[in-house]
Amino acid sequence: MTIEFKVNHPVTADQFIGLLESSTLGERRPMQDRACLEGMVANSNLIVSAWDGSLLVGIARSVTDFHYACYLSDLAVHEDYQRSGIGKRLQLLTQSQLGPHCKVILLAAPAASTYYGRLGYAHNERCWLLEPGVTIGN
After folding, report:
1. Beta bridge partners of 61
2. Rounded CA gap, 19 and 121, in Å?
3. Which carries the bigger pLDDT value, residue 100 or residue 30?
4. CB under 8 Å to 56, separation ≥6 — which residues?
5. What is the 3-state composition of the chain as percent helix, strand, coil, each rounded to the nearest 5?
6. Which of 70, 121, 125, 128 could be joined to 64 by an S-S link, Cβ 3.0–4.6 Å?
7. 13-21 and 34-42 helices cross at what angle (nearest 10)?
8. Where is the N-acetyltransferase domain (predicted)?
9. pTM of the predicted model over 0.90
10. Hey, what's the torsion of the CAs at 29, 33, 37, 39, to 10 degrees?
């Protein structure tokens, strides 16, 4: 198995959806809303992807200013390719695209909460979420 890693290589919505469906990340994404999924890919400004030939097998999808903060929105690896180092390599390549003072920020899936600590991430209890439909101040 030869996996090729690419930075900002075009990823179609169908490829992204297929990867989400073949990983556990699809359980926590709006799979019924194609327009949302298309927008997620189109409006990311840093995408590191892993390919087995023409098959997208991993993605690290981020929104960043490249200098201070990088929000790693999605880290997904196809179930058949997990535990082979692809996720770690996607994160290292993401980090390599960022300036020396840029922090990587992410929200871990419940099953992955211990994974990130082993890689060197620090747990932060100060994260807050404003869910859709909630108006600030109410």
Report:
1. 47, 74
2. 25
3. 100
4. 11, 15, 16, 18, 19, 49, 50, 78
5. 35, 25, 40
6. 70
7. 110
8. 3-137
9. yes
10. -130
Residue listed under structure tokens 């994260």? 127
Chain-centroid distance of CA 109 in Å reads: 11
CATH architecture of the domain formed by 4-119: 3-Layer(aba) Sandwich (3.40)
Give residue limits of the domains in the chain: 4-119
Residue 88: how many CA atoms within 13 Å on its side-chain side?
9
Both tokens of residue 111? 């099953």
**Chain centroid offset of residue 14 CA:** 16
- What are the tens digits of pLDDT across the range 55-85? 999 999 999 999 999 999 999 999 999 999 9
- Mean pLDDT for the chain overall: 93
